[in-house]
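Thread: quick sanity check before group meeting

JM: Hey all, I'm pulling together slides for Thursday and realized we never actually wrote out the predicted structure for the chain we discussed last week. Dropping the sequence here so it's in one place. If anyone has concerns about the input, flag it before I start.
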Amino acid sequence: MKRGRDSRWKIGKIAASIRFVWLVCIVAGIGYLITQRSQFVVRSDPRRPTLALRNDSSVTVLFSTGSSTRFTREEFERRFGIETHSIEGANAANGSVVFYGRNVRSPDRNRIVILGTPKRDGASVIEISSPPANSPSRGEGVLTLVLRWNSRPLRDARVHGWSDPEHLLVSAFVTSTRAIFNVELTGAVRELARLPDAIFSLEARRGAIWYITASPGEGIESEPVPPSELHRISPVDGDRLIARDEKRLILEAVPGPKGDVAIYFNDGTTELSGQNLGKRHPLLFLENGQLVMRDALDLVLVDPSSGDSTVLGKLPEGNVEVYEMNPVL
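JM (edit): ok, ran it. Output follows.
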């Protein structure tokens, strides 16, 4: 009898031990799954592409985690649908504005702007595909605008960009001087400012025209010299002086979404709101307010509020263009 009781006690003890081990395993497994799930949630957003680097043959996508994937242009456009968009980016060599697409598109990326054949009196013609449904000149999907101001033709027009979804920023001659006009999709034209002769750089960025002036050099083909000025022309306040430097030549200005302007000088330095960011070239601001810069062959992300910087990765070989992907995906 005693031996039987001992056997049953030992069997019960073993069973209890097994149940305890199983319980520990189940608890550990649940904990592991919860940990893995939380890690997945944390890592899912950073895996979205942040920058696309396009060169002559391929597109490299840099992820915020530090990893990268290289695509052919066809693979990139097929995967992300970029062939139907025209993202605004920057040339990595000089910071100038570039578009992933040959035509200037509207902020909603659904309308393409091209220049048509001028009229007999020289008036420039702008053609906009897929205009809004309520457009008075919808025609067969193309809105045609004949540019005249105060009944006078606007000649040799150039479309620089959009001030908002319903207005184009256009430069043209109405006299012997080129001026900036805000052209509404209804056909209404408003002059914003006359341009001076000493301009050597002009671009449309963030709904405004940014241009740089400097004194001409001594020779016909010589480079301009200081003093230099940075101006902004917008429909709100017209032509406004943003910066002036007596000793250096302003080469590039990159405006941000929060009103910051990164200014690049001919001595290789960049200044942002009075802060010297060193000898790095500004390329573009991300929509979250951070600034992408080129430091030799490295792409660097700078936080303007703290001045902290993070190396994002190396630039590919060749002529590289940099685009932010997050607003598109």
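AS: nice. Residues 50 and 325 are 5 Å apart (CA to CA). The two ends are 77 Å apart (CA to CA).
JM: adding both to the slides.
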